[in-house]
Amino acid sequence: MSPTGKELLNNLFDRFTRQAVSQEELDRLEAEAKGLETSDPTRAAELVEQRGALLRRRGGLFKARDTVTALTEVAFKTSGISPEHNFNIYVGDIPLQQFDQEHPTEVVVLEKKRKTEKAGRNPARYVDDAPVVVMQELIKKSPSKKDQFVHNDLGSIATKILQPELQEDPKQAAIASKYITEIKATFKNKMRDAARKGNYTSVSELFNEHLKNLVDQGWRPFYEQAIKEYGGMKWQDFVDDVVGRSFRKQSEKFELGSETQKLTSYLDQPGKAELTEMILSAKLRNPEKIEEIKKEIFEGKDPVGLAKRNGWKSNSPSFDEDLRESCIRASKSKSAVGKELTNEVVKAYKNDIQKLISGMASSKTREQIGSKIKRDLGEFSAIRFLYALTGGIEDRPGLSHNLSLILFSDKSLPIDHQDYLEV
User: Fold this and answer.
1) Is the CB of residue 412 less than 8 Å from the CB of residue 307?
2) Mean of pLDDT values over 235-243
3) First CA to last CA across the chain, in angstroms?
4) What is the pLDDT of residues 42-86, one digit of tens each?
5) Do 266 and 233 belong together in one domain?
6) pLDDT tens for residues 389-403?
7) Residue 173 has pLDDT above 50, yes or no
8) Is residue 385's pLDDT more than 80?
9) Cβ distance 163 to 133 under 8 Å?
10) Which branch of life, at top level (predicted)?
């Protein structure tokens, strides 16, 4: 029996859909992606995305079929033709040569390009097989010291995957460092999954199995080198101690350097360090503030004793006298001559000193600030005291913020500043 109008449309769309998005192509992409899950996870993700693009195209065609079918039924009713009317036409008789493979192929190419750019695999930025290069460089050991790696910095690996004209660009190195971190994370996750599924214990067991089914031969040198250098290692240790070892990203270096520079640059300006010392001396010599710091920040522990345990050394038997003498020295320095410690000065320096306190209490910048103090500000006892004190609240931003509030809770100097300038 010849098909009805509804059946004719459904059959026509089914035939067109199968040609535009073949099941064979979907199966091929799925199989190829599974084969690359461990050896080239980034490429595997691209293939999965390509398959997804085809599925989305097929889904769109099905929606179009349903829409056209509904519209056709309305047209039939309007024209007085029954939807059950049999048409003496068969789908197999309709030539579909005009629906060639150019259009879905183009979609796949565009989808692949979009995914590639999204993943950071920009061919204008990176060399070919950048993920392979990253992993090869990551496991290299020093030829002179076998217990050390060639690369201890993401930036040095970044130069291996960047195009030659970009290797000296700090911004590109920072971008590449983030890409390297993504490659590491993806490889680690895929390796864990494969090892657990296959119940492997060592690197050699896991990677020898990979080599048996390796699709992308570009990964062969990496696996062979890994087996040679780390074959007897447990795969968990390889993941944690080799692939997953800690690096400081190139971008973090620039960011931390800039952040530290902002925190300390004002201390390099003439008179700024001296006035900072004088302000802190005035604040810290107030017994009420020390008592409040003891109660609110250190739960009843003596701040002076804590600072001493953290390396602060007093030049006088009395804490009060030590800060007073340091303030006098600061006021007599060439850079501070002619500068007075006034309430206006305290207000002007408040934000910079509070930022400095926050930086002292952060593990990201504390070490650099400490080096600055030791190198250039060793004679300033109040600054040294505050640095030692913040060691007890490292990476506790709430407490460092409260410490700043306590020091600057009043709008005026707690003690007449002239008392500090007596000789």
Assistant:
1) no
2) 86
3) 117
4) 677 777 777 777 777 766 666 666 666 666 666 666 766 666 655
5) no
6) 999 898 888 888 899
7) yes
8) yes
9) no
10) Bacteria
Token pair in block for residue 279 = 């302000």
Among candidates 261, 282, 277, 270, which has minimal Cα distance to 355?
261
Do 107 and 141 sit in the same domain of this protein? no
**Torsion over CA: 407, 411, 414, 415 (sign):** positive
Residue 192, Cβ neighbours under 10 Å: how many? Answer: 13
Statement to judge: residues 292 and 415 lie in one domain: yes
302 C-beta neighbours (distance < 10 Å), count? 13
Model confidence, pTM: 0.42
DSSP annotation string for 166-201 = GTT-HHHHHHHHHHHHHHHHHHHHHHHHHHHHHT--
User: What is residue 254's predicted lDDT score, i.e. its pLDDT?
Assistant: 44
Positive or negative, the Cα torsion across 391, 397, 403, 408? positive
For residue 338, what are the contacts with CB-CB under 8 A and spacing of at least 6?
none
What is the domain count for the chain? 3
Name the domain boundary from 62, 92, 118.
Answer: 118
Specify burial of residue 84 (Cβ count, 10 A radius: 0-12, 13-18, 19+): exposed
114-126: pLDDT as tens digits: 444 444 457 788 9
Q: State the residue range of the domain holding 113.
A: 5-118
Q: Tokens in use for 131?
A: 């993920």
Same domain, 260 and 242: no
Say which range, 383-387, 390-394, 406-410, has the weakest mean pLDDT. Answer: 406-410
Question: Would 123 be classed as within a structural domain?
Answer: no
Q: Tell me which residue of 163, 62, 48 sits closest to 111, measured CA to CA.
A: 48
pLDDT digits (tens, 9 = 90+) for 286-295: 899 999 999 9
Among candidate residues 115, 352, 367, the one with its CA nearest the CA of residue 248: 367
Residue 65 contacts residue 9 (beta carbons within 8 Å): yes
**Is there a single domain that holds both residue 404 and residue 280?**
yes
Is 259 within the bounds of a domain? yes
The answer on 174 and 63 residing in a single domain is: no
Q: 260 and 381: one domain?
A: yes
**What amino acid is encoded at 314 in this protein?**
S
pLDDT of residue 104: 41
Q: What amino acid occupies position 144?
A: S
Q: Which of 247, 272, 288 is at the close of a domain?
A: 247
Higher pLDDT among residues 331 and 145, named by residue: 331
What ranges make up the beta strands (E) of 238-328?
none
Place of tokens 């570009």: 218
Same domain, 240 and 282: no
